[in-house]
Amino acid sequence: MTQMGVLRVRIKSGISSIFLLCLWNLISGQIRYSIPEELEHGAFVGNIGKDLGLSTEELSSRKFRIISVASIQYLDVNRVNGMLFVNARIDREQLCGQSDNCVLLMEAVVENPVEQYRVEVKVLDLNDNSPTFPNRAIDLKIPESVMPGTRFPLERAHDLDGKNNSVRTYQLNANKYFTLDVQNTGKWKLPALVLENILDREKQSVYTLLLTAIDGGTPERSGTAHITINILDVNDNPPVFQKSFYSVSLRENVPPNSLVIRLNATDLDQGTNGEIVYSFSSNNEPKITEVFTINPFSGEIHTKGILDFEKSNVFLIHVEANDRGTQPLSEHCNVRVEITDVNDNAPEMTLNSISDSIREDAPTGTLIAFVSVTDRDSNQNGNIDCRVSPNLPFDLKSSFVNSYRLVTSALLDRESAFQYIITVTCKDRGSPPLFTNTTIIVDVSDVNDNAPQFTQRSYTVYVTENNAPESYIRSVTALDPDTDRNSRLSYTILDYQVQSVPVSSYVYINPNNGSIYSKRSFDYEQFKTFQFQVRAEDAGLPSLFSEVAVQVVVLDQNDNPPIILTPGTKRNTNFHVSRSADPGYLVTQIIASDADSGKNAQLSYHLKQASVPGLFTVLHSSGEVRSVRQLKDSDVTTQKLIIQVKDNGYPALSATTTLSLTVIEGPITYQPEFIESRPDFKGTQQLSLYIIITLGATSLILLVVIIALVVVTCPRGHSAASCSVCLFDNCCCTRKLEYQNANVNLQLTRDSHLLPGILEVRGNGSLSESYRYKIRSAPEPEEMFFTPFSPHISGITGMDGRYTLQYAKPQKTWSNEVSHVTKM
């Protein structure tokens, strides 16, 4: 190792030990450290965890990390103890060149809650580079005619260190002809030789000088160059520029071969000694010849390639003008070219995603990603605004300059959107503005936040009775917009009692698909409908459910034959018929019921067999047994009728009864029959049949009394409107015969002009309707007989002013088949 190398190592070691005491500040979310360059891997920078106030447990639990803006991870952090250390060798000159301020930028991030800190690590310059000259040997040719005071520019020394450690001054060994003049341009110090005395080539034709460049480091470093000066004779007028320093401004987007400046130097000499050739001085940096060209004859400087403000915004060009004399003279000038920025760089975005999936119940403000953006342009062209796609529940929150957090701005719903494609757009403020986009895809993970919903509000199932056990009834369907196990449904039937029996004894459900099956055969006569609840429950944690009502309606089948109530098997089926009875005489009435409903319970009555055909008939709809013609003496005294009662179902069911009829010669006294109440004969009240048959004078006396009362109470001349009943042609009178009990009011009026009269029946209680009937006198003058056609009245008889009403409410509507009674 050379002595200079040993000195460099010692300087590095000493400076490292001094600057390892790094200063830090936490100001408005920023931490600053200072370290020297050239530190070895693992060198301590600072305890960033302690400086942020984080314990060692928080470093791990809050996912502490640093994000470097630079492409190389120069620094890293120990996530166990929070120590910030050097991860890669830092060469300040390579990283920042000769910039006065060299700073490494990083971001320190912790979560739960999210906090960000800007970390700035200032890299301090070490005096680790000595000044060097482009040429260690400098040859100058100076005519002897040069006057004292003439300046001869020299090549400047280059030092890779920063400003303070760069070239501070130049020194020239002592001599009586030349002195050193150092010109400070602000960026560099340019040395020049100044002739102090007149040269005499004949006395001394060659001068050898030692030029030393000294930097400002501690300890200082130096570099030397040997100057050899040859004294020339003759050509004693050098070229002269109008100015020694020129300043030009160019936009960075000028095309190649654009004119920068046209230089003009003059030479008072004539001939070849006055011809000037322009060239770039050797003092120029190498990049000058890469960017610019100079015309040696015209002095025009042109651009050679594309200018880039972001790479270099200032160029200092040293131009030399030489005449073409035998002993050429030269002159120098400096051209400063400033490059103005053009908005030619779009913002550059760096994305650090936290997660590519987020729960749909995540609270507002949940962090999705960090977004950092930079723009190589400057001033207004480098100011950046960022935004996210509109109409999305996401927002960008600014952490500090050009650093953002992408967070949720509203509650999410996976059932509305299971995935979001978020476009982050960053645009600068240049004219025209440039922008860049980046896309983030965020999947929304499901949460069990939707209860199953049935496709119907309720279900009605129609099942025909006598169904087969284990038969399919129907299916209920529920839908759940969640996914995976949150949408996996199971169906159950809730506990419910049907006639004190659990509903599970009647039906069961397939828990996987909601299909409902019967467990037993249903009987319409046992129950006509029942209801139960079905629950659909998902498999989420916690699970959600909904319920729906299912009503089962049992449809009737014709599985019950008619039951004959009157005459019953326990009663006397032997009836008496007077031989003098008129045609249409009511012998009896067959009353039957059917436990079925609808058309299956619509009954019809048929005479299947008779001892003498054509003598008696049965009304199909009412079951009344009536005589067809008047009995003759030749007709046998005992008649046998077989009557069939048949329902309207398919196939039809029937029942039969046998009646024995005995023909008698005298009048008949009817005895009422009572029908026992049956539980399956709904709406029927107890039937009371009172048949009063009187003969002879009683009816005549009653009729005379009625006529007398009418004559006394209704004087002639009254209008028909003032009378309730008109019984004869020349008298308008009112006669009211009433029968009252808890359920029926009976009023009878006769119209003399309309014979037969009118019967009005007013009901209350179970007989709530009013009816009017036309009637005519019975064959005997004192006897009146009525046949009703209301669904509530089965018979009326009257004699001697006393009337009996027989009423009932059967299932069938009575038909109008008797000619002498007409409903009004």
Give an overview in words:
With 824 residues, the protein is mainly beta. The chain folds into seven domains: 122 residues, Immunoglobulin-like (Sandwich), CATH 2.60.40.60; 96 residues, Cadherins (Immunoglobulin-like, Sandwich), CATH 2.60.40.60; 101 residues, Sandwich (Immunoglobulin-like), CATH 2.60.40; 93 residues, Cadherins (Immunoglobulin-like), CATH 2.60.40.60; 103 residues, Cadherins (Immunoglobulin-like), CATH 2.60.40; 102 residues, Sandwich (Immunoglobulin-like); 127 residues, no CATH class. Helices cover 7% and strands 42% of the residues. It is built from six helices and 62 strands. Strands 1-2-8-7-4 form a five-stranded mixed β-sheet. A hairpin with a 5-residue loop joins strand 21 and strand 22. The chain is rod-shaped. The chain starts with a helix and ends with a strand. The relative contact order is 0.05. The N terminus and C terminus are likely disordered.
TL;DR of this structure?
The protein is mostly beta strands. It contains six helices and 62 strands. The model is unreliable at about 1-30, about 670-690 and about 715-824 (pLDDT under 50).
Outline: rod-shaped
- Class from helix and strand fractions: mainly beta
Number of helices: 6
Beta content comes to 35-45%
Radius of gyration: 64 Å
Mean pLDDT: 77
What share of the residues lie within helices? under 10%
User: Got a strand count?
Assistant: 62
Largest sheet: 5 strands, mixed
Separation, N- and C-terminal Cα atoms: 143 Å
Q: Give the low-confidence spans.
A: 1-28, 671-691, 715-824
The quaternary state of the protein chains shown equals single chain
Count of the domains = 7
- Spatial strand order of the main sheet: 1-2-8-7-4
